[in-house]
Design a protein that fits this description.
about 800 residues; alpha/beta; six-stranded mixed beta sheet
């Protein structure tokens, strides 16, 4: 333990010293490396100091969003690329034939949580473009295969008389039909080298994690598999014919084998590897299609059906095949069948020409950034095909797959996350909230990570994923440390393997952290406060008045944080408070009631006051975060009060802000005024035992006095809170030019009497409204503010 402590301190000092002499990017890399070393050391120390039967934590070894992964030795060409990639982002324009040749580019989709989503619509767009570019007006001409094979050893049947014209352009003259062939640019794919390539088992090569381009790469593989099957099927028919097939069958068979090597590049004495591999659940049919038909006995129901017979499946067979599989398998099968059917409309020459064009003239920009973090930022900065990928989707991949051990748990967590991220629907009475939307999950993760790490996290540029992973790893370490301490020591010679506790991992993090946080934030932002367990009407822990006071405080916090930008940081403390209250309310312990009482009577008013301070004084982001983190410390230590000097300073600045703030000058100021006046109205109505108006989210403010005797009076008083009245909805404009004997104030008093807000009704009792009335109302509002937020 002393050695580990010495290493950690030494690394910290080294990083501090070098930070003054090295570039920022290098410093970040070294800090990331230090974090990885520290996490590994802590994990190792934990496993050594705990009992022998403590579960190991292999997923602590390497964070996903830190330094770039180390790669295994590869071919000289690949090594040069990798060495360059550690220094800078490399983008190379490569033809598909180069990408699909050998094992230099093997693709997996570990960090791509979208799955395969392309339907026939997107597949047709790509296929139409490729056919149009490759075939032009050659499609549908009669096929004379013997004139096009000749001496080509690889089955390539393109006309050998084609001459090069300008760069990227060919002029082909076949059967007196002129067509211009140009290169086809299939946009950019973003790849990150993985560290799991075993050259002893797999030979020289590279495996890349696909951050962008999964849909196109999978669809291209399906297209090549369809071409291979068409050539193989035709060759088999020729071989079975009376003529024995001849050179044509041999050439077609060679072409099919050539495509097979692109899809599954073989090496003598090395293990097989597929060109692209999806997650195991989604890879069942894709793997079968890419491998093609073999003589190997079937091991599962889906392998009993030949890939060449997929196009002739009956509805019943298709249902039986797909019923146990994921939706991605359904899309893969449907697209493969659709592609295969479209290829049958082409002649052999056209299919050969399409193959040559795909291999030789279809180009991709292959971008290989130096780190996975840069890769994700590049992807986010581009217009993506299909569904937009957000940082929360990357975090989803980490939680569900990288930090969860068992495969079944991975997909269960993945499905649960998808359900939670679905667009919320109207909830039936008595049912629980199941879905909140992706944006709410992202916001909840941002707030909880900020609270756990006590740091400001940027929500733009993708930096949040790095911080989210830090939060995840911190929780994993803390929870597993507790588990290790709770493990009973193993008796000498005994075997407690049956009593081993599963390590706390990604699936537990989702269940205990992400899901309850997201649901609590959704309830708060949508105003479903009655859904909280600590406010449930069947709870007898508080009186109706106490409950109404809490709801009025939370409603004010909701209105102000959603309407005023400078108060968004307050949600960090609000969410932590709500989760603590929910946890205490669900506890069977007798000590939960005092905890709930302390939170509601001491912490909630403090959060409310400091949030109002943020809105009125508009402090810097650093000051706002400092106050929020002080609130979190107060919650943790049970000491709600800050220093007296700080409290006096806040009170003074709040009073000045309330008195001088120009609420009516901007839309944000009007939202703030509406939130403050709603809170004041609720306070007065509760004191007078009146019901608080509900379902008035659209309440706004009306500027009472609009005509002033001087410009100085207008500038000083027109937008102050003393000249504003809370109304349920915006006042309708009177028709211009319409004469009326009723004064403006009389019309306003008639409208104010109909309002449900008590302070607005009191205004209607005044005989007139002038500068003196505005000044008196200003004093009343400041006095009421002192009473509501205990500022006196």
């Amino acid at each position: 333990m002393l050695a580990i402590l010495f290493i950690i301190i030494s690394c910290s000092l080294i990083n501090v010293v070098v930070s003054f002499a090295i570039p920022k990017s290098e410093l970040i890399t070294r800090c990331d490396h230090f974090i990885a070393i520290t996490s590994t050391s802590i994990s190792t120390s934990l496993s050594q100091t705990s009992s022998d039967n403590s579960a190991s934590l292999p997923f602590f070894a390497a964070p996903a969003f830190t330094s770039s992964p180390q790669t295994s030795p590869t071919s000289p060409q690949s090594t040069t690329t990798q060495q360059t990639a550690t220094q800078t982002t490399v983008t190379t324009r490569l033809p598909l034939g180069t990408l699909f040749d050998g094992r230099d580019y093997i693709f997996i989709t570990e960090s791509n949580v979208r799955g395969y989503e392309w339907t026939q619509k997107e597949t047709d767009v790509l296929l139409d473009d490729l056919m149009d570019a490759a075939l032009g007006n050659l499609g549908g001409i009669s096929d004379d295969y013997e004139d096009t094979t000749g001496s080509t050893s690889n089955g390539n049947a393109s006309n050998s008389d084609n001459k090069s014209a300008d760069k990227g352009e060919e002029i082909s003259n076949s059967n007196n039909l002129l067509t211009i062939t140009t290169d086809y640019e299939l946009s950019q794919i973003t790849l990150v080298p993985t560290s799991d390539w075993d050259s002893q088992k797999l030979g020289l090569g590279n495996r890349y994690d696909v951050y962008d381009g999964q849909q196109r790469l999978v669809t291209l593989n399906l297209l090549l598999a369809g071409l291979r099957n068409s050539f193989q099927s035709e060759a088999n028919e020729l071989l079975e014919s009376n003529e024995g097939g001849g050179k044509r069958a041999v050439a077609l068979d060679a072409t099919a084998n050539e495509i097979s090597n692109m899809l599954m590049p073989t090496k003598v004495r090395k293990e097989d590897v597929m060109r692209i591999t999806l997650r195991k659940r989604d890879n069942v049919l894709l793997n079968k299609i890419l491998v093609g038909d073999t003589s190997t006995p079937a091991e599962s129901p889906e392998e009993e059906i030949s890939t060449q017979s997929y196009t002739s499946l009956t509805t019943k067979q298709k249902t039986q095949l797909l019923s146990p599989l994921s939706i991605a398998n359904t899309r893969i099968l449907n697209n493969f069948i659709h592609i295969s059917n479209r290829l049958t409309t082409l002649t052999t020459r056209e299919r050969l020409r399409l193959l040559d064009y795909i291999v030789e003239r279809v180009y991709l920009l292959v971008c290989i950034p130096e780190t996975s973090l840069i890769a994700r930022n590049i992807v986010m900065s581009q217009g993506r095909k299909g569904m937009d990928n957000e940082p929360v989707d990357d975090f989803k991949g980490l939680v569900c797959f990288r930090y969860t051990l068992e495969e079944s748990d991975m997909y269960d967590t993945f499905d649960s996350w998808d359900g939670l991220a679905a667009e919320p629907t109207s909830k039936e009475e008595g049912s629980s909230i199941k879905s909140v939307g992706r944006d709410i999950i992202a916001s909840a993760c941002l707030l909880r990570a900020s609270a756990a790490l006590r740091t400001k996290i940027r929500s733009r540029g993708g930096d949040e994923v790095y911080e989210w992973e830090r939060w995840l790893r911190q929780e994993l370490w803390l929870q597993n440390k507790r588990l290790a301490q709770q493990q009973p020591p193993q008796q000498e010679g005994g075997n407690n393997s049956q009593d081993q506790v599963q390590p706390w991992q990604g699936k537990d993090f989702f269940i205990e952290e992400i899901e309850p946080s997201s649901i609590a934030l959704y309830k708060f932002r949508t105003g479903q406060l009655d859904e909280f367990a600590f406010l449930s009407s069947d709870k007898k822990s508080m009186t109706k008045k106490q409950r109404d006071i809490v709801i009025s405080r939370l409603t004010f916090l909701r209105d102000i944080t959603m309407g005023v930008t400078s108060t968004k940081e307050a949600e960090i403390a609000i969410l932590e408070l709500l989760l603590s209250l929910e946890y205490a309310a669900s506890s069977d312990s007798g000590s939960s009631k005092p905890i709930i009482t302390r939170y509601l009577d001491e912490i909630l008013p403090l959060i409310e006051k400091w949030t109002l301070w943020m809105a009125l004084t508009k402090p810097s982001p650093m000051q706002r975060h400092s106050r929020v983190f002080a609130l979190l410390d107060a919650m943790a230590m049970g000491s709600p009060k800050g220093s007296d000097d700080d409290d006096d300073e806040i009170v003074t600045s709040m009073k000045e802000g309330m008195d001088t703030y120009e609420f009516g000058a901007t839309a944000g100021g009007k939202r703030l005024a509406a939130a403050i006046l709603k809170r004041m109205n609720s306070h007065v109505m509760l004191q007078e035992r009146k019901n608080i108006p509900v379902d008035h989210d659209d309440a706004t403010v009306d500027m009472i006095q609009q005509s002033w005797s001087s410009e100085e009076e207008r500038e000083e008083w027109s937008t102050r809170i003393g000249n504003l009245a809370l109304i349920s909805q915006p006042r309708r404009r009177t028709t211009r030019g319409k004469k009326s004997d009723v004064s403006l104030w009389e019309r306003k008093t008639k409208m104010y009497k109909k309002e449900p807000w008590i302070l607005t009704k009191l205004l209607a009792e005044l005989d007139d409204w002038d500068i003196s009335a505005v000044q008196d109302q200003q004093k009343e509002m400041l006095s009421l503010m002192n009473e509501v937020w205990s500022l006196a």
